[in-house]
Design brief:
The chain is α+β, with helices and mostly antiparallel strands. It has one domain (3-104): GMP Synthetase, Chain A, domain 3 (2-Layer Sandwich). Helix content is 44%, strand content 20%. It contains 3 helices and 3 strands, in the order H-H-E-E-H-E. The chain has a 3-stranded mixed β-sheet.
Length: 105
């Protein structure tokens, strides 16, 4: 296996949650967040992250909080905090009613 193939395989494993890591969504009747709109908005954001070699994984929601994992180039980028607060959080708060906070693990 070439080094490039090994790197790509590792990134795919990190970016693809397993069943045990599936998003932990609250009961939609109890959550202030529209999960369909949240997913749609994350798909809107995703190409910008992928253009720079990164991606995001939705880990779940809890009340008004959305928990994400930045992966690939975004995971280790020194600008990831700014990307999260000035970019991802701002877009989610503007487009998805009920989102008040975005946390990255």
């Amino acid at each position: 296996m070439t080094e490039e193939h090994q790197l790509q395989s590792s990134m795919i494993e990190v970016a693809s949650p397993t069943d045990s890591d599936a998003p932990a969504f609250e009961d939609p009747g109890e959550s202030p967040i529209d999960h369909d709109l949240l997913s749609e908005t994350l798909e809107y954001i995703r190409p910008a992250l992928q253009a720079d070699g990164g991606d995001l994984v939705l880990l779940g929601t809890s009340g008004p909080r959305v928990t994400l994992q930045l992966v690939g180039a975004c995971g280790g980028c020194p600008m990831s905090t700014m990307t999260l607060t000035a970019g991802i959080e701002r877009i989610l708060r503007d487009r998805v009613p009920g989102v008040e906070e975005v946390v990255a693990l």
